[in-house]
Write a structure and sequence with these properties.
Oligomer: single chain
Largest sheet: 3 strands, antiparallel
Distance between the termini: 44 Å
Helix content: 40-55%
Number of strands: 5
Strand content: 5-15%
CATH architecture of the largest domain: Orthogonal Bundle
CATH class of the largest domain: Mainly Alpha
CATH superfamily of the largest domain: Winged helix-like DNA-binding domain superfamily/Winged helix DNA-binding domain
């Protein structure tokens, strides 16, 4: 067996993305299991056949070798014009159908209609994405308007989540993007965003001091976030289609 086909079987069988480190560990675990069986049978007086050379060769599988094998699989998929590919996201590698088959695949889910985000919601999402973790006051300082509704919409869509509290007076909430955000936009990290390093260095307007009503709104947003898919541990939705 080749490492690439073994990894392919793991990715197809797994319901969750698998990192290079995890796949390397799983391969090494299989070799260790075979070695343990060999030792046990020898201790029991049997004369088992030695491990196959191909299996022994996998005992030192590294994450780097996994990444190379995945690239080999993708080259094979491309050459044979397969309908799927393997992509890496922040949580690991996963098999995806190619985007140009989307119009056909979408008919498997007739009840899921994409909903585009409004311009203000996209602006708010962009600010969070480039400057995360960021407070609501800082977002509003950039946009110049209240962002309660936009933040709530992004929380509901599972594109933004609460990532803690800032070490500032009043301990305001911090917002950051979710795994679904990265998956939807096809990136692995914030550094993959256009002009990320430049835009993350731009000085932002200073936010106004938090007022009592603003603090109350923060509490409401925190409570509402408990019911979002990310907070509740529910399945991710892919019905949102930001423009």
């Amino acid at each position: 067996m080749q490492l690439s086909t073994i990894l392919e079987s793991l990715l197809i069988a797994s319901q969750e993305p698998l990192s290079s480190e995890e796949m390397a560990r799983l391969v090494r675990a299989r070799v260790a299991e075979a070695e343990d069986v060999l030792i046990r049978e020898t201790d029991e007086g049997a004369s088992p056949a030695p491990l196959a050379d191909w299996l022994t060769a996998l005992s030192q599988t590294t994450p780097e070798q996994v990444a190379e094998a995945v690239a080999e699989l993708n080259r094979h998929y491309e050459q044979s014009q397969r309908a799927f590919t393997i992509l890496e996201r922040p949580t690991g590698w996963k098999v995806y159908t190619r985007s140009h088959f989307g119009d056909f695949v979408r008919h498997l889910f007739p009840g899921r209609k994409p909903e585009r985000l409004s311009g203000p919601a996209m602006e708010t999402l962009a600010i969070v994405a480039y400057r995360q973790p960021i407070t609501k006051a800082a977002i509003e300082a950039v946009r110049g308007v209240s962002c309660d509704g936009m933040i709530q919409k992004l929380l509901d869509r599972d594109l933004v989540r609460i990532g803690g509290r800032a070490d500032l007076p009043g301990r305001p909430l911090l917002y950051q993007t979710t795994d679904l955000f990265f998956e939807h936009f096809g990136i692995n990290s914030i550094d993959d965003l256009p002009n990320a390093s430049e835009l993350r260095r731009v000085k932002l307007p200073e936010p106004k001091e938090e007022t009592a009503p603003a603090e109350e709104t923060e509490k409401q947003l925190a409570l509402s976030a408990i019911g979002t898919p990310a907070a509740a541990g529910g399945a991710e939705s892919d019905t949102t289609e930001p423009s």
